[in-house]
User: What shape does this take?
Amino acid sequence: MKTKTLLSIKFLTLFSFIFLLNSCTDLNEVFLDEIPGNTVSDPAGSLAAAYDRLGDGTFVDHGAIFAMQEYTTDEAILPTRGSDWGDGGKWRDMHEFTWSSTNSIIVGNWDLLTNGITRCITAIQSAEQSAIPEKKLYAAEAKALMAFYTYTTLDLYAQAPYKDPMDTKATLQILKADTQIDKLITDVEALIPDLADIGTQRTYQGRFTKQAAYAFLANMYLNRAVFKDRYNASSNFNFNEPAVTGSTGTDMDRVIYYTSLLIDSGKFSLESDFFKNFARDNNNGKELIFAISQKIDYIRNGSNSFAYVCMERNQRASAANRGTNAACITPEFYASWDGNHDDPRFEQHYQYADGTWFMNDGTDVSVPATDIVPKSSPALPWFHFNRGIQAGLQYGPILLASGSLEMVGNRIKVSPLFMEKSTGTRMNFTPSLTFADPTKSVFAQNEINQGARVFKYEFDPEGGNGNSNVDIPLFRLGGIYAMRAEAYFRKGSAGLAMIDLNKLRTSRKRESLYGNAPGKALTALDSDQLYKELGFELYWELQRRPQSIRFGKFDLAGTAKAASQPFRRAFPIPQTVIDQKVFKQNQGYN
Assistant: This one.
């Protein structure tokens, strides 16, 4: 239930929660040298604050971890659109690989992740020094979360700060990805006995359970070879190195082991409607293993960023909502779907209760106004856009000068849409991107319509553009099948890999407009097709950069991107951190 927030956080007073958030250390200034002691007496509050860092921008805002994991790849781009999205070039830097140690996205995400580590240290202290019945559970969750923040920091920056939570005199340590990955794996494996099974001890997908640990371990094993040899010039990573735990096979065997625990557990099942995984009522989603629980309430109003960032400003879910016309997918990623547009994961039309389908093809005249934005007063009609990848001419409601949507009788009128900031330019989401200078992702004002958009996450109109009830999956069953398929493939078992990929394809069903047809099964599989399949299942889920590095795609030239050097597989340590003379800069950035 959405009311079941982290550790039943509403049992805490609002004052206590705000105090916890405001008291956490800024690691950009002190690198874990000052751990706040005033929250140690409140284990639940300290752990809640550690969880809150996941959803307070870090993993739910397009400008945070998403920007580094998606905009840097062959999947996504945020170009400068005329007078919008220049912002000192920080967005273009991500896709053009021109970032430096002063880029505000790189600096900001370092601060978010290391602040998460700090909060976890406080939560570990608080649990370990308490006598509460949940002592072992809370400590295990805090340690697992700390490993998750640390792993993400090492993935992106190749280094991370560490300080022993229980040693007040401990000195700061600088962890390195190539040597720390094995320790992270063994640490998380050791926590499993003390973590709860999902659904027990008041846990759910928003808590770090045994099942979240299995998914996390599978992910770490899948990427272990990259961590250990990140700058390998030929991207010839050793994915079949003996596993950390000795006599238990290779890294890929461990990926298969942990993913199979989840697949065979009976606790999760694939959604036949792929887009249910990303709907505003997905809190009880059948695939969610570990997710960021979002709710529009007085504590944290959730983030609509992953939906809002692609919608155009004249696309309106209600008279009080709009998009922002920022990100789009690349021509390369759109082309990867060639011959597969009937895949249920590519696009889905919305059907209203009276049977009306929104076709978005120029044939729509009107849709019912019977759907109402939740908690709106006065009641606002709710217009539903289609889901998935949206390309071509766009249609929808028009906002009148009166502040209401244009109506036809008691129905919402559907009209051709034009760009808000280029009023003579038709809203045409072209899959191609035609930059005047192919090396720079800059559009003239009359070109700001370009780029196919991702409407994977449901746009939640409740509470304004920025708020959302959509839980953000970090690990879900579809991704678990994808990981196992990749592990099978890397072990030379293409047939077993294809079985898992076809499970994903054929378990998904199209809408009834197309007879609930399942996706089509693959008949052959090679490395390039596997890479496409990972994109089909996991696009817009902060997974593309690690995928592209594993498959040797990250360094390649593409739209508005020249071929790059292996040092770009890690981001620089922020200059503000280097200036404190504790960390040394990553290779290639000096």
The longest strand covers residues 288-292. The mean pLDDT is 93.
